[in-house]
Amino acid sequence: MLFYKKIFLMILLFTNIVKLNSNILFFTNNFKINQKIYYSVLKCKNILIYDEFMPTLYTNINIKNKSKRKNVYSLEHIYPSSYIDKLAKNDMHNIVKTSKNINNARSNYKFCDIIEYKYNIKTKEWYKEHNVIDTSKWIQLENDNYVNHKKKLFIPNNNSKGIISRAILYMKFKYNYSIEKIINIDTLIKWYIDYPPSNNEIYHNNIIKELQNEDNIFIKNYNNKRQINNLIKELYKK
């Protein structure tokens, strides 16, 4: 009974046809999920690359040819996989596709914001607050991303900041991971407030919910100010 209820919900969510007389469980907008995919973590993750409606981090590259997508895209763990256990590594609320080049450049570096630094266009020097010269080297990547390999810092473009904040908040409250080495709390909350969920991010959450039976509440309940404010207060207490 629960199976058919789930199917019915998918029809309402995505207005797709479900073939109950086959092994098809449900469709995303352009990617069918059958039983073999549903019960395979690896194949589920492929949805993030091959479904063009899934969000893309850091880059505006949009590869329409499915056979070429695997050559361009890779999967980014927003909360770095090097800091989490095996169970959390497979949590797709924390995984979004990006280009291989930027994924490699970001590594497991801490996120920060360009407003935390001041950039002098003429001298091409970065200044931290109070005008203290930061002599470490910043590299500008494609699509307004910046990386500092010496300081192990990464500044994402504006389009990526919202989804980054909500994935990190999810990992914090789901697995009780610390976030200090991932991002400064004030920056995290600013991104969360300033960059609301996009349609692609909401779509990502809806599909992952069907696969993992759990929402990212920071996406689903973004407009529930009271609930989110209470959670943020807890964040500052910890």
From TrEMBL:
SUPFAM superfamilies reported for this sequence: His-Me finger endonucleases
A GO molecular-function annotation: nuclease activity
One Pfam family this sequence matches: Endonuclease_1
Alphabetical keyword list: Hydrolase, Nuclease
PANTHER family for this protein: ENDONUCLEASE-1
Descriptive protein name: Uncharacterized protein
Organism: viral metagenome
